[in-house]
Specification:
Elements (H helix, E strand, L loop, with lengths): L5 E5 L10 H9 L2 E6 L6 H7 L8 E6 L6 H20 L4 E5 L9 H9 L5 E4 L4 H9 L10 E4 L15 E4 L6 H10 L6 E5 L7 E3 L13 E6 L3
Parallel strand pairs: 1-4, 1-5, 2-3, 2-4, 6-7
Antiparallel strand pairs: 7-10, 8-9, 8-10
């Protein structure tokens, strides 16, 4: 029996209207849908997909990934996810593994795909709209120019050298609890007036801030800060 294919499917940042036709096509073709589950039991990627396509009749697999700085804990959760998917793939059932944004940008899918791909399981990737592109659209801005490079930073845990000395547009993704420190350093460097923020992009509790000097911003995991030289 031929093995099923593991499809990594990017479903965008939150707005179900940004789920691509290709993503919908692949999800519809898969009898099994997998998605990350938060410690609180939520499945954000699945919730977005369900607003764009009927998932009734499909097997839904929650995947629990360790949000830890311990490499061993993270690897154990990746292997556990692969073990959960493996029986379905062995039975010839293809799996659509849903990821927020795009599957090539800080996606949990990559770890599972690396494990199963080396074991001979077919793997494919379906691109999705990234959070920073969606945020730029909300802000009505261009991220790049003819001589303006784009720097994408995963979080704000190493703020000092990650963006303040580089030229162009800098994006800090998923700043979470480090957001106050990032904003403080931007203020001390006289750069806060150039920075803009989008929280929970595309979700019901979305917030857009173009003027960070005059508003108070609470920490949110999905907090994205954009700093552009010519802003």
């Amino acid at each position: 029996m031929a093995k099923g294919t593991l499809h990594g499917v990017g479903i965008g940042p939150g707005d179900p209207g940004l789920v691509t036709l290709k993503a919908l096509e692949v999800i519809a073709s898969c009898p099994v849908v997998a998605a990350p589950r938060t410690p609180g039991g939520g499945m954000i990627a699945l919730d977005i997909a369900q607003k764009a396509i009927d998932l009734s009749g499909k097997t839904v697999l929650p995947l629990d990934f360790a949000m830890s700085r311990d490499a061993g804990e993270r690897a154990a959760s990746h292997n556990a996810a692969a073990s959960l998917l493996r029986p379905h793939l062995d039975n010839g059932f293809s799996v659509a593994m849903l990821n927020l944004g795009d599957v090539s940008i800080y996606a949990s899918f990559r770890y599972v795909a690396d494990i199963l791909g080396t074991e001979g399981y077919p793997v494919s990737m379906v691109p999705g709209v990234t959070s920073f592109c969606a945020a730029a659209s909300l802000l009505g801005m261009s991220l790049t120019g003819p001589a303006s490079p784009l720097h994408i930073l995963p979080d704000a845990t190493e703020i000092g050298e990650n963006g303040f000395t580089t030229r162009g547009t800098r994006i800090w993704m998923k700043t979470g609890r480090h957001l106050p420190d990032l904003l403080r350093q931007l203020r001390e460097l006289g750069l806060l007036h150039k920075a803009m923020l989008v929280q929970n992009c595309g979700m019901p509790n979305q917030r857009v801030c173009r003027d960070l000097e005059s508003v108070d911003v609470a920490s949110e995991y999905f907090s994205l800060v954009i700093l552009k030289d010519d802003a």
